[in-house]
Every structure is written in structure tokens, then in C-alpha cells.
Amino acid sequence: MSDTQPGTEPETQPESQAGAQAGAPPDAEGLSAEVREMTEEERAAHFAQVADAVAPDREIAVGVGDTLLELRDVTLRFGGLTALDSVSFELRRGEILGLIGPNGAGKTTCFNVMTGVYRPTSGQVRLEDRPLGRLKRHRITRHGIARTFQNIRLFDEMTALENVVVGADARHRTSVVGALCRLPRHWREEREGVERAMALLEFVGIADRAADRAKNLPYGYQRRLEIARALATEPKILCLDEPAAGFNPAEKDDLMSLIRRIRDDGYTVLLIEHDMRVVMGVTDRIVVLEFGKKIADGTPAEVRDDPAVVAAYLGVPDDGAA
Ligand SMILES: Nc1ncnc2c1ncn2[C@@H]1O[C@H](COP(=O)(O)OP(=O)(O)OP(=O)(O)O)[C@@H](O)[C@H]1O
């Protein structure tokens, strides 16, 4: 499973949310040439604009708020196998929630239920207190849930910028006829889409490779591009499925600071991740699954010290766990 087990102290502690600067520039690497040449003051103003473009309706550093998404007694069966067994938990506005558990625990299935890939056998998923019910997947994207995948899924032949523009297209309002007739509204949306996509590439730190085909980008850039594309749909909730897979420790640190910046810019994040240093270092709260059941729900410190969680990861019975 992971590089580290629960019970291991994270090497990196989370920055306090109050101290984090919304719209603060990412590391110089990944900035476009134009931005690199700016003075510090110009850069600060530029990144304030970028933050506006990335999350126009954001409420910066508001802290954890009301319930945004709720799983109520969700059960999902695949034939005889119960992948989720009466799972209930909440995702609150403005938090980074970790979803962890040993292999096969039901984490990805949980994501799939939340994003409409699977319908629960019983129970309910509610977004802003409304049942997701029988909404189609694209309607769920419109209702505000976006995700990345364990295995990167990009349009290989498209440039990085095009991949993000395609993500933003899910939000366009012009009709097909409007687009075909090239109505002014269509042009305006297209221009705004490109500008916002560029801002998103800058936000995730890969603007210098905007014109490169996705397939030619280094692995870490592809992972960041997936995040930019998911953000382009202006989601209320960003679900990240093992975003640190294949990263070295320095890349994991960069990813953690990106996840914090995403939250500080007004998004709510659900994170599936096997690397305990990343999970313990970046989340506000953690839900733990084992064999499809929720076995713990609490702060990283509470979860790390929970005997049932230690037992699940170490494979010893509850009463045998220290
Ligand atoms: N489409 C499916 N059909 C049948 N069984 C499935 C399907 N998808 C998942 N499962 C089973 O459901 C259980 C939960 O799988 P899931 O992929 O959600 O676990 P996970 O916690 O994400 O695991 P991992 O960490 O290995 O990705 C597993 O036993 C898996 O084999």
C-alpha cells in the first residue's frame, strides 16, 4: 500500500489556512515567459487577476462551512460483492477531506457513486441538500463535481491549453446553432475560455508548456494538467484520485502546496491517496474505509491513532492492535 503507514509523523505540517495567500504565485518554474519578466509587484497584481479568473465566485479562506455533499447509508453491490456497505459521511464546504483505506476498500467506488458513474443499490448522495438521484454524468459536472483519475486521461494529441479549453467548454451556454453561426456570444465565450484556460495552466504551474501536446508533457505536468482541466469546469468539489502516484518526494511537496492553494481559492477537495505523508500533511479530516465499511472519520491525528485504522493497515485484529 503506501510509502508510510498511519502512525508515522508527517514530515511536512499543513500551513495554516489563515496564513496562506490566495492567488499567491506558484514557483517560478512553470510560469510563462511574460510573467517571469514581470517585477514582483506586477506579478502579485497578475496573480490576483489569475485567482479571479480561476475561481471568480470564490470565498477565500472562509474556513470549513456547511455540508456540501453527503452520502447517506450508501450501499453498492456488484453481484454478490458489497463494495460499499451503508457508508455515510459528509463533505463540508471549504475542507480538504481524505478518503483512505487498504486496496479494494471501496474508495474509487465511492468516487464513482458521487460522480454518477454508478448508482447506489440503496441510500442517497446529496449535493447541497438535493439528491443526485438520476442525474446524468454531464449534469453532475454541471452541478459542480469534477474529478481526476488514477490513470491519467488526457486528450493526448491536443495541446495542454486545448485540453483545458475542452474542460471549460462543459460550461458554455451558446447553443450548437449559435456556435455554428458564430454569434458574438460564441466568440466572446471562446475568447474567455482560452484566457481562463491559460490562467489555470499558470495556477497549476505548467503555463510554460501550454502549446505542447499532452502526450509530450512530463508525467508530473500531465497530472497537473488533469487538475487544471477539472478546475476548468468550475466545480464546487474537486475529487483527486491518487494524484501523488508516481511522484518523488519533492513533487509530492509541490502537489501538497497546490492542493492547499486550490482550497484557499474557494474549492472543496476530496482526496483519495495512498501516500500517508501526503494525506496526513494536507487534509483537514479523513474518512477511512475497509471492506466497503466506514471504520473511522476524524482529524488526521485522531485517525492516525485509531486502533481500528492501524489494524486495517497492518492486517491485525482490532484487539491485537496496540
Ligand atoms: N465494476 C466492478 N465490478 C465488480 N466489482 C468491482 C467493480 N469495481 C470495483 N469492484 C470491487 O469493489 C471493491 C472495491 O473496489 P474499489 O476499486 O472501490 O477499491 P479501492 O479502495 O479504490 O481500491 P484501490 O486502492 O486498490 O484502488 C473491490 O473488491 C473491487 O474488486
Describe, in plain words, how this protein is organized in 3D.
- The strands form two sheets. The chain has a six-stranded mixed beta sheet with strand order 6-7-8-3-9-10, with helices on both faces. The protein has a four-stranded antiparallel beta sheet with strand order 2-1-4-5, covered by helices on one side.
- It has twelve helices and ten strands.
- Strand 7 (237-241), helix 9 (249-264) and strand 8 (268-272) form a beta-alpha-beta unit.
- By secondary structure, the protein is α/β, with parallel strands linked by helices.
- Helix 5 packs across helix 7 and helix 7 (184-204) crosses helix 8 (219-231).
- It folds into two domains: 1-22 and 58-144 and 235-317, P-loop containing nucleotide triphosphate hydrolases (Rossmann fold); 28-57 and 158-234, no CATH class.
- It starts with 32 loop residues before the first helix and ends in an 8-residue tail after the last helix.
- Bound molecules: adenosine-5'-triphosphate (ATP).
- One of its GO terms (biological process) is D-alanine transmembrane transport.
